[in-house]
Amino acid sequence: MPKKNQLQLRTVISGIIAVAAMTLLAIVLVSAPNRQVHVDAAANSKHQESPKIHLTKREQRVAHQYRLTKQQTRTASKTPITAIGDSVMLDVKPNIKQVFRHSAVSGSVGRQFYSLPKIVRDLKAHGHLRKYVVINLGTNGPPTQGDINAVLKTVGNKRQLLWINTRVPRHWQGTTNRLIARNAKKHANVHVVNWYQASSGHASWFASDRVHVDLTGARYYTRELAREVSKVLN
Fold first, then answer.
1. Which residues face 133 on adjacent strands?
2. pLDDT (tens digit, 9 = 90+) per residue, 103-122?
3. Is residue 4 situated within a structural domain?
4. What DSSP string describes 10-22?
């Protein structure tokens, strides 16, 4: 092929390549904003689908008093719970009833964990065991795995069990809290309400025995429960 023709051919090919590159660049520039618009629209739609929470005046007072978010307050207000515990549960019963409007609370001085399997069985047999079960036991002595297994069998997989760990200046504190943590890891429907951690460094929340809570401690105790319930449900 003559050199003149070769030169013309190279020129044509170069022109074709340049036009193709410019066309591809234009397509990318045009489509990229469109994709971003679709992404933004989807995000905005998702955001708009989340309903705003308008608290009642009663719920507003609870949110302020217990330092809860709107979602935590509304979730606690609407969630039916069965709460079973010892004398610490008696301390916080008025607070739990205030935050959890649909709650049945049973506390007893000196109650041990070994009494829990029968309590849970009786409640279930009479149709009084709600979907969310709160346990506050371990203050007066550690549970055994056998009693824990019996409770879990009665509670079943369709209910959620929120187990409040303990802060008690006794040698069984560590044993109790380790058992609670271990069972929460093994069972998807068992959740730790970490009162031990929440109350760390707050001796002023407790009575002189360092076990029972004062009015301030009762608020924070209930707050920790409300926060965990909201986490489980949301």
1. 82, 161
2. 999 999 999 999 999 999 99
3. no
4. HHHHHHHHHHHHH
